[in-house]
Design a protein that fits this description.
By secondary structure, the chain is mostly helical. It is built from 9 helices and 3 strands, in the order ααααβααββααα. It has a 3-stranded antiparallel sheet with strand order 1-3-2. The N and C termini lie far apart (about 50 Å). It holds the Pfam family HTH_27. It comes from Haliscomenobacter hydrossis (strain ATCC 27775 / DSM 1100 / LMG 10767 / O).
Length: about 220
Amino acid sequence: MNKTVQIVNEWGAFEAAHPHAEIEEFCRYYLTAQRAKLELGENFSGKGTPPTAASYLMKLIGYIARLFELYITRAMSDVPEIKQAEDFYFLNNISHSGECRKTEVAHQQLLGVSTGIDTLNRLLAHGLIEERTDPSDKRARLVSVTEKGIKILHECYRRAAVVNDLIFTNLSEDDLKLCIQLLRGVEAKHAALALEVRELPILEMYEKVLGHKPDSCKGQ
């Protein structure tokens, strides 16, 4: 089939299913569909290929996350006010959230309250954030970023950008945007559910999120 005819047919089918979609969305869809047809590589770091695409993807995500933690920790090591990578994450969270409750920050970072409070106390001790009593609830404390905190945060952004370039140096801007498009829905879904189900056993967590038992448990 002529390549032009083939792409027009693909667009026609996509437009029929998604009448309000833009051409850019079709292009991302088409690229994703073509890439999905590719076979997985023969090995992953010389240790064998995971058995499914999902397990392969999770192994990649997990390993890249560990690499990021290694690099970001090193990048922040000589910023005196930032003792751990979590300090940067918390400071960034508060900066984007505006004034917010301490417990909210800990929950957004998927940490227990006590662990989150320890991190917030470090930021307070270094003058990166400030706190006050919540006027609507005297038992709660509100935190916000100080001018010093904003200055340190900008330095952290500069260092984090170096880490991002280090990790993703071989990916084009379009590839990065495609990854974001594919994964942002996963993040959004689980960000809303994680705190609700975090204490459940994994099978109950699965059923709560997906509405049914895993296939391997059906009939039990």
